[in-house]
C-alpha cells in the first residue's frame, strides 16, 4: 500500500476508531485504570515507553520479574497482542 | 478508506441534513439496545459509545443506581459502607447513552423489538442482553421470596437491602451464636464469593463476637481457591469455621425460616442464629421468557460473538449464559461484553467479528491486609465451537507463607474495584 500523506494519516489517528484500544488491551484496563492511567497501587501504563513495557511483559512471562499477578496474566497473551497493547498504552496521555 | 467501513445509515449521519433530530436519529444510526445495567450491560453501553460513536445506544435498567455484588462482603465485615459500592447512571448518560429506567418484559427476536413494562416498544438492530441471574425460589423447600426477608440471600444486587439485612442480623446476633450458610452446587454466580463471604463474616465476628461460629453447609465437595481459603481460615480464624461438603451431608434441601433451621439431604437439622441462604440459580427470567435458555436454565451462546444459539441478533453476556470453563464473574461479564459489542458492530458493518481473548481475575479479601486471587485467560478453540483456557497461563496465588503477596493483593483488589467500576460507569 502507498504510504498515506502525513496530514491524512494524522487525521485518521485522531478518529476514535483509529485511537481505539486493541481488544486484548481491554483486559488490562480493569486493573490499570481508564486507558491505562493507573489506579491506586496499580502502576500506570499510559505514556510509558513501548519497548520498556514489552520487555517487562516478557520478563513477567518468564517469571524473571517479581509479580503478585502479572506472570499469570502475561502468559495468557500472544507476542502480537502484547506488542499491540504496549503500542496502544504508549500513545495514551500520561 | 475508513468511510467504507461504516454502514450506509451511519454515513448519512455525517452529512449536514436538516431534519428533526429524532427523525434524523431513527433514520441514520444503527441501534444497539442493551438490557440490564450491571457488569455486562453497563460495560457494553459504555464501551459501545467510546469505541463506536456511530452507534445509537439505549440501556434499559429498572434501578436508578447500581449496587455491586463485589465488595458487598466487605459491607458485611463493616469495612465498607453501601454508599461506597453504589453507582449512578449519570456517567453513561454523559457519554450519550439513552438510559431508560424500566423493566424489559418481552423480546420479539424475529421483529427485533423489545417491550417495556410501561407499554413502550423499542426496536433494535442488535441487542446485548445481560440481565444476570434469577434465584430459583422453591429449589430449596421453604425458601421463597418471603423467607429471604428472614434468611437473606444477599446474592443479587437489588437496592442493597438484602446485604444490609444480613449485616444487621450479624450486628444483632449475641456473641456465641452460629452463623449458617447454605451454598449451592455449580454453576452459580461468583464461585469464590461464598468463601470470601465466610472470611469477611469471620473477620467481623473475630473482632466483635469472638465466641461465635460459622457453619458452612455446601452442596459441593470442592470449591474455588479452596487451599488458599482453608489455609487462611486456619491461620486467621482458628476453630471458628466449619465447612461441611456435600458428601458429608452438607447439601441444604429444606429451610424453616421462622425457626431459622437449615435441613440437609439426610435430614440433619441445624438451628442457627443467622442464616444466609444462597439458593440455586438460573438465567434471569427475561432470557427464559424469550426462549433463549436450554434445559439447564442458562443460555447457550456462540463462543466468539456471544450471539444466542437460537436467536440471531441477540448477544447474551454475563452470568445468564453458558460460558464454558469461564466463571460467572463481573470481570468475565465485562470482558465478554466488549467482545460482544465489537462483534455486533462488525456484523452491522458486514465485517467478520474480531478474534477473541477473554480475561478474568477474581480477587477475594480473606482478612485485614490479606487478599488472594485467581486469573484466567480464555479463547475460542480453533474450530470456534467452544472456549478453552490458555495453557500455561492463569491460576491462583501461591500457597504457603507469603505475607507481602497477601498484603499487596488486598491493595490491588481495591484498585481493581475502582478500575472496573470506572470502566462501567464513568
Ligand atoms: C457476594 C458477591 C461477590 C462478588 N465478587 C466478585 C468479584 O470480586 N469479582 C468479580 O469479577 N465478580 C464478583 N461477583 C460476581 C458478579 O457480581 C457477577 O458475575 C456480575 O454481576 C454479572 O454481571 P451481569 O451483567 O450478568 O449481572 P448483574 O451485574 O447482576 O446485572 C444485571 C442487571 O440486569 C437488570 N435486569 C434484570 N432483568 C431485567 C429486565 N427484564 N429488564 C431490564 N433490566 C433487567 C438487573 O436489574 C441488573 O441491574 C460477585 C458476586 C457476589 C454475589
Can you characterise this structure?
The complex is a heterodimer of chains A (94) and B (426). Chain A contains seven helices and no strands. With 94 residues, chain A is mainly α. Chain A has a single domain (21-91), classed as Cytochrome c-like domain (Cytochrome Bc1 Complex, Chain D, domain 2, Orthogonal Bundle). Chain B has 426 residues and is an alpha/beta fold. Chain B has helices at residues 8-14, 21-28, 39-51, 72-77, 90-94, 161-172, 193-208, 226-236, 285-289, 330-348, 403-425; strands at 30-35, 55-60, 65-67, 86-88, 98-100, 104-108, 113-116, 121-123, 126-129, 133-135, 178-183, 213-218, 241-244, 252-256, 261-264, 269-271, 274-277, 281-283, 314-316, 358-367, 370-380, 387-389, 395-396. In chain B, the strands form seven sheets. In chain B, strands 5-2-1-9-19 form a five-stranded parallel sheet. In chain B, strands 13-12-11-17 form a four-stranded parallel sheet, covered by helices on one side. In chain B, helix 8 (226-236) links the parallel strand 12 (213-218) and strand 13 (241-244). In chain B, helix 3 (39-51) crosses helix 10 and helix 3 crosses helix 11. Chain B starts with 7 loop residues before the first helix and ends with a helix. The chains are: A mainly alpha (94), B alpha/beta (426). The interface between A and B is large, with 29 and 44 residues. The structure holds flavin-adenine dinucleotide. Flavin-adenine dinucleotide is lined by residues 35-41, 60-63, 66, 69-70, 72-73, 103-104, 130-132, 155, 157, 189-190, 193, 197, 284, 286, 318-320, 328-331, 333, 362-363 of chain B.
Amino acid at each position: 500500500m502507498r504510504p498515506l500523506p502525513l496530514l491524512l494519516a494524522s487525521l485518521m489517528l485522531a478518529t476514535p476508531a483509529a485511537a481505539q484500544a486493541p481488544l486484548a488491551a481491554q483486559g488490562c484496563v480493569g486493573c490499570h485504570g481508564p486507558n491505562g492511567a493507573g489506579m491506586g497501587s496499580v502502576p500506570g501504563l499510559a505514556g510509558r515507553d513501548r519497548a520498556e513495557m514489552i520487555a517487562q511483559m516478557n520478563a513477567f512471562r518468564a517469571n524473571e520479574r517479581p509479580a503478585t499477578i502479572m506472570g499469570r496474566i502475561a502468559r495468557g497473551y500472544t507476542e502480537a497482542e502484547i506488542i499491540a497493547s504496549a503500542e496502544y498504552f504508549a500513545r495514551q496521555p500520561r | 478508506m475508513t468511510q467504507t467501513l461504516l454502514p450506509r445509515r451511519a454515513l448519512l449521519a455525517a452529512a449536514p441534513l436538516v431534519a428533526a433530530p429524532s427523525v434524523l436519529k431513527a433514520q441514520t444510526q444503527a441501534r444497539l439496545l442493551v438490557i440490564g445495567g450491571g457488569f455486562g450491560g453497563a460495560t457494553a453501553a459504555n464501551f459501545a459509545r467510546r469505541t463506536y460513536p456511530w452507534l445509537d445506544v439505549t440501556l434499559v435498567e429498572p434501578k436508578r443506581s447500581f449496587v455491586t455484588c463485589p465488595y458487598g462482603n466487605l459491607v458485611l465485615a463493616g469495612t465498607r459502607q453501601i454508599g461506597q459500592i453504589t453507582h449512578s447512571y449519570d456517567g453513561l448518560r454523559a457519554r450519550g447513552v439513552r438510559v431508560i429506567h424500566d423493566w424489559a418484559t418481552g423480546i420479539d427476536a424475529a421483529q427485533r423489538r423489545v417491550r417495556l413494562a410501561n407499554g413502550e416498544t423499542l426496536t433494535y438492530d442488535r441487542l446485548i442482553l445481560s440481565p444476570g441471574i434469577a434465584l430459583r425460589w422453591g429449589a430449596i423447600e421453604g425458601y421463597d421470596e418471603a423467607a429471604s426477608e428472614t434468611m437473606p440471600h444477599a446474592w443479587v444486587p437489588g437496592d442493597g437491602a438484602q446485604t444490609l439485612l444480613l449485616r444487621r442480623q450479624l450486628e444483632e446476633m449475641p456473641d456465641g451464636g452460629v452463623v449458617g450458610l447454605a451454598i449451592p452446587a455449580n454453576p452459580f454466580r461468583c464461585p469464590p464469593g461464598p468463601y470470601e463471604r465466610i472470611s469477611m463474616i469471620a473477620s467481623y465476628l473475630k473482632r466483635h463476637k469472638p465466641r461465635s461460629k460459622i457453619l458452612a453447609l455446601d452442596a459441593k465437595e470442592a470449591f474455588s481457591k479452596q487451599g488458599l481459603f482453608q489455609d487462611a481460615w486456619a491461620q486467621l480464624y482458628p476453630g471458628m469455621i466449619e465447612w461441611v461438603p456435600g458428601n458429608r451431608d452438607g447439601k441444604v434441601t429444606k429451610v424453616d425460616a421462622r425457626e431459622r433451621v437449615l435441613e440437609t439431604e439426610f435430614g440433619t437439622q441445624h438451628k442457627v442464629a443467622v442464616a444466609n441462604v444462597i439458593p440455586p440459580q438460573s438465567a434471569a427470567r427475561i432470557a427464559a421468557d424469550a426462549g433463549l435458555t436450554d434445559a439447564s436454565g442458562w443460555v447457550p451462546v456462540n463462543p466468539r460473538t456471544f450471539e444466542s444459539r437460537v436467536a440471531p441478533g441477540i448477544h447474551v453476556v454475563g452470568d445468564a449464559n453458558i460460558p464454558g470453563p469461564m466463571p460467572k464473574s463481573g470481570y468475565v461479564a465485562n470482558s465478554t461484553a466488549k467482545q460482544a459489542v465489537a462483534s455486533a458492530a462488525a456484523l452491522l458493518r458486514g465485517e467478520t467479528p474480531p478474534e477473541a481473548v477473554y480475561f478474568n481475575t477474581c480477587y477475594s479479601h480473606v482478612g485485614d491486609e490479606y487478599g488472594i486471587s485467581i486469573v484466567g485467560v480464555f479463547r475460542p478453540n480453533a474450530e470456534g465451537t467452544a472456549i478453552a483456557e490458555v495453557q500455561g497461563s492463569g491460576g491462583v496465588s501461591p500457597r504457603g507463607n507469603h505475607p507481602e503477596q497477601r498484603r499487596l493483593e488486598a491493595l490491588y483488589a481495591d484498585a481493581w474495584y475502582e478500575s472496573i467500576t470506572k470502566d462501567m460507569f464513568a
